[in-house]
Amino acid sequence: MVENTRLIELIGVSKDFDGTQALTDINLYIRKREFITLLGPSGCGKTTMLRIIGGFEYPTQGQVLFEGKDLTAVPPYKRRINTVFQKYALFPHLNVYDNIAFGLKLKKMPRDQIEARVKRMLKLVKMTGYEKRGVEQLSGGQQQRIAIARALVNEPEVLLLDEPLGALDLKLRKAMQLELKAMQQQLGITFIYVTHDQEEALTMSDTIVVMKDGRIQQVGDSKRIYDEPKNAFVADFIGESNILQGTMIQDELVSFCGQKFPCVDSGFGEDQPVDVVVRPEDIMIVGEDVGMLTGRVISTLFKGVHYEMMVEAGGFRWKVHSTTMQPEGSQVGLSIVPFNIHIMHRSTEPETRGDED
């Protein structure tokens, strides 16, 4: 259960690398027991932010607070934070047991306590019985589990994970997503996770922070980020979207593709330019005579659980997902219910995390 207590706060954090701005005025808080994901394309600043939280980089401007105390200049080894990197950095000359126990031995912890903790971690990551195995004999997924166990055995209050599943195949990656979330809930510690994989973020996170060009674009839970994107970048990056320009005629009425459509959005004013977002799965293919728009199917692709069709209608090329296939060249109608039309301001400012969360 996520607590409302703010564990970590970034206040006005910026980072400059030799004249290149990696982060700009980041304001973000992270709660106790939260699984929060920093999501964005390569170069957006998510790993830089993670490294600043871990103490591997220091901000050019701003502060990092931990339980209200300034942590900005505190070195990594003095923070109650551990990190799991994409390259697991296991010691090849040590077996599984000694890799996990390494940090505890440095602290000169009694042998019986080390053994108890290592056994607990092996059970947690489902690797009991592998104690004497050399790490180079393990699969990629097993190595990743040992890297997580080594980070967790020190009982950190926060675990940082920098794209730890990036080297795994798709099936194993999906399985590990569920296992990581289960571990986090069982241990009750804060996970700060970095990825560029939208599905991964939506599957695992209590909160997602979407980033672009060193700035936060939107903060929210998976449903809010998917259903109510803050701007066109978020709508396009999270899942698949049809994004087109329209005009908000009045509350709950928008015009695009030469037609007027009822919607559920309000507060945009009258005759205002807006961006309109419609998800491919929210478009219904119907008969020409009953469609809100009519058009022609120009391509059909089978995607396993649905068909993906491109339909030219109203001067726009729509991406439509449906379990019913329409052949190329067929004339169809498209229908969209008001709830599935999402309206955004044409240009919006990046977001900071508000108290409503």
Question: Would you mind describing this structure in some detail?
Answer:
- The protein contains eight helices and 20 strands.
- The chain has helices spanning 46-54, 96-106, 111-124, 140-152, 170-187, 198-204, 222-227, 232-237; strands at 6-17, 20-31, 35-39, 61-66, 69-70, 81-84, 158-162, 190-195, 207-212, 215-220, 242-250, 253-256, 259-262, 272-278, 284-286, 293-302, 307-313, 316-322, 331-335, 342-345.
- It has a six-stranded mixed sheet with strand order 6-7-8-3-9-10, with helices on both faces. Strands 13-12-11-14-20 form a five-stranded antiparallel sheet. A five-stranded antiparallel sheet has the order 15-19-16-17-18, with no helix packed on it.
- A hairpin with a 2-residue loop joins strand 1 and strand 2.
- Helix 2 crosses helix 3 (111-124), helix 2 packs parallel to helix 4 (140-152) and helix 3 crosses helix 4.
- It starts with 5 loop residues before the first strand and ends in a 12-residue tail after the last strand.
- The model has no long low-confidence stretch (mean pLDDT 91).
Proportion of residues in helical segments: 10-25%
Mean pLDDT: 91
Compute the number of helices.
8
Strand order in the largest sheet: 6-7-8-3-9-10
| Content of β-strand | 25-35%
Helix-strand makeup class: alpha+beta
Low-pLDDT segments, ≥5 res: none
Largest sheet data: 6 strands, mixed
Give the beta-strand count. Answer: 20
Oligomer: single chain
Terminal CA distance reads 14 Å
Radius of gyration: 24 Å
User: What is the 3D form?
Assistant: elongated
Order of helices and strands: EEEHEEEHHHEHEHEEHHEEEEEEEEEE
